[in-house]
């Protein structure tokens, strides 16, 4: 290590430690221990042009161990990527570009919002999947980059990492490289308190190349390991780097004391003295360090210019492909995409919304080649698949196996088989969306949305247009029983800010819901039924506008309504039947289909008042879930017919009857409300 290289590494360490000390909050241990590997990656290997941080073919770097965010901010500052020294000094303060954990919407150069451990690693797998698919589609002359992630012990303890690592190994994502900050310290103390796992063996068993660096300060060994990882194209690579957390701090290095709190003034000064660094001024960036990082930025700029020249040559040969590539990365929808749904025939018979969703999704996919996704081993049940569009697999995995959906087998396939890995599936989809150029969807049973809540929350926080498809939306699941019957899930997901939840009532509402999801710039949850549902005569004309508004008048009585029945999804048909029963008793009931609370709340007050007029205070809500939240629509005088407990094992129609979610009970309840 030259004196300049040592100076660069110590600049990273103490920019980070100074910022954390000034904020009196943060995690100095990781930046101080991992600075050498980060320095080598960023100055010798990473293709990242700070002057154009959104360059499509850049390498992606994900700091999965997001608590060490000051490491990334220091690197972005030194690289000239738009983080100024004042931003560094404003670490963790209101409105700063340097929040406590990296946020992709806040800071240019931050590829993923990380912090919840394991999520960033799974996001990186999604980015590597996106790269492999786009390279297969457009050619390696246009798409040919690597995805790097830096993770810690905590990332690898989280269960999502097991799921993501296993899938990445199976898919042979050779352009995925993970640096493991192997300091063997967690927040509570030594990792020996909670694990004896041999990490290298786990990754090797999952099909990864594993490289080990015994000394985290040996930059030549780190450099060699990164070169070896880049040379391996058939397997993803893990580089386990044995580091010392809080390196240089005389009393706190190697212990949890340096993990999650500032070093303290005395310890920080002592660390600087121990490593030959001036104690003053704070936030020191020597001129020769700045010049050295500028040379690295020049290298990356040259790589970007070379790519642009290659792209220009590609454009001359394949102008249509270039136009498509640019459209994808601008997130623009293809012209006339909505016409792909023209002429869809759902038939006259009742049809489940999961089946209607399959018809709509496959029609949309013909017009939108960026749609890619799959299920947690449930595509034959959720129908969230793209028929004939191939299986996303390593070509080397074929081994005589037949594809599941038809079409090509390889990285050009658009159906990702996630296996029974819901948590990783959601996080990988987030990574695909973060990468750009593709529009991901996922599919599983609605009850298993509980496994996917962290990535759905991060998709909402990051404003990512992931489509989360869930089927088997209610106790209508039937004989599988309460373990598979969602009861509280609707209320749970409606509580996530920025997440649009849509539960359509029939096939035409399903088509409208998919259109909304495709147009959306934020994540959407589509909740579909297992059981067949009638198609209403009104929805063909009303659903497109009505679903986009979140709620609308589906059926209106003759004369002014005396009461309002509000329902979602599978229960709308029950409300319609109940209204017909009430009409026979000369009771005028309006039926409101309310597929999305979030969309309804976004409507002007006048529209909401027109659908749910205050003058009609007598209301009954019907939903095969818990009551939570319905008070906003039914008020103090309204009644709710739904679930107050978990379900049971029995045929779906029996369960609806036993739990009183029937037209007869709705009509009787509404009549009693009116007569009271």
What does this structure look like?
By secondary structure, this protein is α/β, with parallel strands linked by helices. It folds into three domains: 3-302, Rossmann fold (3-Layer(aba) Sandwich); 337-527, Thiamin diphosphate (ThDP)-binding fold, Pyr/PP domains (Rossmann fold), CATH 3.40.50; 547-675, Rossmann fold (3-Layer(aba) Sandwich), CATH 3.40.50.920. Helix content is 42%, strand content 12%. The chain contains 25 helices and 20 strands. It has an eight-stranded parallel beta sheet, sandwiched between helices. A five-stranded parallel beta sheet has the order 1-2-3-7-6, with helices on both faces. Strands 16-18-17-19-20 form a five-stranded mixed beta sheet. Strand 17 (563-567), helix 20 and strand 18 form a beta-alpha-beta unit. The mean pLDDT is 96.
Task: Provide a compact summary of the structure.
The chain is an alpha/beta fold and 676 residues long. The protein is built from 25 helices and 20 strands.
